Amino acid sequence: METITNRTLNLHEAWFWHEEEDRLRCRLCAHNCLIAPDRSGICRVRKNIDGKLYSLNYGRLIAAHLDPIEKKPFNHFLPGTQSFSIATPGCNLACDWCQNWQISQADEVGSLTRIPEVDPKKVVQAALEFNAASIAYTYTEPVVFYEFARDTALLAREAGLKNIFVTNGLITPEANADLVTWLDAANVDIKAFDQDVYRKYMHGSLEPVLETCKALKAAGIWLEITTLLVPGVNDDPLQLQNLAQFIANDLGTDTPWHISRYYPQYKFDSPPTSLKGIEKAEHLARMAGLRYVYPGNTASSTQTVCPSCGKLLVDRDGYRTVLNELDDGRCPRCNTEIAGNWA
Ligand code: SF4
Q: 317 FRET partner, CA 20 to 30 A, in 34, 111, 289, 297?
């Protein structure tokens, strides 16, 4: 098997690590891996080479697409705009039903040595050429390509573009404190509201994800939440109620929640989420006081309705915004301010 050395790739030293005797402690995500010489962390893209931690996936783009912002999904952030969406291989979780497992769970050496490195300037240039309003760090887990995302984001900001994370939220408070200095919006995937589910199916922890959501909110980053509803795993009514309460109480009732339909993928082959299951979850969310609840991965259109007077404000056909009646972020009928960034 080929081994990545400092000659195989143009190596980029990682951020957030320190030495512990002959091993290295990575402080980027909540796993806090202790990495032996010549070994990688759980994400398989940060490696201890000759006593330094390197980001192996720096600039190794495995996906780059122009997507409607609604596809990320964001329903309250720059509606109707396009987001230049990029990913590198790697993830710090291993969800049994991962919808992007071919790239998120890619083997370290096999994938990385074959992918040419892209300069952050090229990403920003492409986003501008495509007339995107933002760059989205997405598809896999952007936390594990933090250094590349950061370098790109700083240039993007200078060029007038917004920066968006679509993330599982498993980042340390230390790294998150840096992230919020250059991020504009985040969609955090809260995959369940049960630590045992996180441990068994994703090989991760719930608590750091909740802490990240609270910290992003406190820092003024526009936040939307997504949950992929997997039958028999995270669709227990009490679990959903508790998750809805967390969003309402800790993040605010104005925080949009996307409840998405699961389809069999990767190691999981139970039937897709029923539409009735999505409707039940939406009902629980509204009972908890959430004002903006959206079904995802369904054929139905999604609408934003004024929580005060009931006027239809934004209508979407799939990922396309087909109607936007907002007047400077307010309901034109009753003048209620609708949370979000509508510019
Ligand atoms: S980013 Fe997370 S999974 Fe990857 S090496 Fe660091 S602590 Fe481990």
A: 289
Please list the residue range(s) of the chain that carry CATH number 3.20.20.70.
Answer: 63-300
Residues 18-29 pLDDT 10s = 999 999 999 999
CATH topology of domain 63-300: TIM Barrel (3.20.20)
pLDDT at 2: 45
**Ligand 1: nearest atom to the Cα of 17:** 6
Span 209-238, average pLDDT = 97
Contact 34, 141 (CB under 8 A): no
pLDDT at 109: 52
Q: How far does residue 31's CA lie from ligand 1's centre (Å)? A: 6
- pLDDT of residue 205 exceeding 80: yes
Residue 102 in this model has a pLDDT that exceeds 90 = no
CB atoms within 10 A of CB 310: 11
Q: What is the predicted pLDDT for the residue at 8? A: 63
| Token duo for residue 211 | 């802490």
Selection from 183, 184, 176 nearest residue 215 by Cα: 176
300 or 222: which leads in pLDDT: 222
Asked whether the beta carbons of 205 and 194 are under 8 A apart, the reply is no
62 CA distance to ligand 1 centroid (A)?
19
DSSP SS3 for 295: strand
Any atom of ligand 1 within 6 Å of the Cβ of 91: no
Tens-digit pLDDT profile for residues 68-87: 999 999 999 999 999 999 99
Closest Cα to atom 2 of ligand 1: 29
Decide whether any atom of ligand 1 lies within 6 Å of the 31 Cβ: yes
- State the Cα angle at 287 between 282 and 289, rounded to 5°: 100
Asked whether residue 34 carries a pLDDT value surpassing 80, the answer given is yes
Instruction: Give the nearest ligand 1 atom to 92 CA.
Output: 3
Ligand 1 pocket member 41 (CB < 6 A): yes
Sign of CA pseudo-dihedral 106, 205, 191, 167: negative
